[in-house]
TrEMBL record:
MF GO annotations: ATP binding; ATP hydrolysis activity
A GO BP entry: peptide transport
Gene Ontology CC entries for this record: plasma membrane
Membrane topology: Peripheral membrane protein
Reaction it catalyzes: a dipeptide(out) + ATP + H2O = a dipeptide(in) + ADP + phosphate + H(+)
Keyword Membrane: yes
Gene3D superfamilies the UniProt entry points to: P-loop containing nucleotide triphosphate hydrolases (3.40.50.300)
Protein name per its UniProtKB record: ABC-type dipeptide transporter
UniProt keyword annotation of Membrane present: yes
Chief site of localization: membrane
Alphabetized UniProt keyword annotations: ATP-binding, Cell membrane, Membrane, Nucleotide-binding, Transport
Amino acid sequence: MSLLEVNNLDVRFALRRGDVKALRDVCFTLDRGERLGIVGESGAGKSVAAFSLLNLIAKPGYIAGGSVRFDGQELTGMSDRALRRIRGHRISMIFQDPMMTLNPVLTIGEQMIECLKAHRRIASREARAIALRKLQQVQIPSPEARLDQYPHELSGGMRQRVIIAIALLLDPDIIIADEPTTALDVTIQAEIMALLLELCEKHNVGLILITHDLGVVSQVTQRMLVMYAGRVIEQGPTREIINAPQHPYTQGLMNALPQMATPGERLNQIPGSMPSLDNLPSGCAFHPRCSFTQRADGSERSACHSQVPEFVTSGNCRVACHMVTEMLERERIPAEETTR
């Protein structure tokens, strides 16, 4: 049994004009110590998926269906009091902006000690010693002095290291990192990701990394999910998806990387934009932007416009695409004929 199992997760936002489906039938698992990446454009549903795991969706959002099981416990119907024993304790979260996460009127030490005391019966001196050890683990220089400083006195990279130290305070089983390096420059981004990877490997902590950066995903994660318009459209081993993406959207993301363009030419891009969740296209949500809705012989794949594609297994990956389904079907029929 996997440490985390998400099945058919459905998240909606209740608006005056009707419910908007932010997530549809999201399914994935995470084993202990495994690193999973979730990628996609802005609006794909990556952060909503992460917040849903701990039922942190703010109203008018709500979990409309599905299951989130952590270590055998169902989280979707769990009371807030019971969830507080898991949030920050067994599942920690690293948010995009450390200045929005840290309290500006409390010192770093006060915030770390407060976090420890919220989950454990512990003396202040012992809590401070644990906080100091965690700051040392994330390689913050002069950690004793940092405990008595305020967030505004630290650089962006140091603040993000503090956030990682707080996430590790209670030795969690899973860390959810939501765009953890967005506001940092490239050099600091690399340092933070290398640190996060090292800590997860050393302590056997599962990692869910949410990002739009395929380069980071390829270096840090073992498996990845590609999301589009609130639905997972491709998932499998990171190396296989990066080297041979099968869904047209994943192919478009890969082709949009700067290194994929010819020097001196315009960068490749996926035409159009992510559809509004309250006005999704019929059939495959990606079909208005997809160049593969038309077959090689010029005929249209009507299923792309009318049917939501089901997942099919292709190699070690699962893909929701009518084109891939047709391709696998063509491969299957000759194989059956040769065995007769």
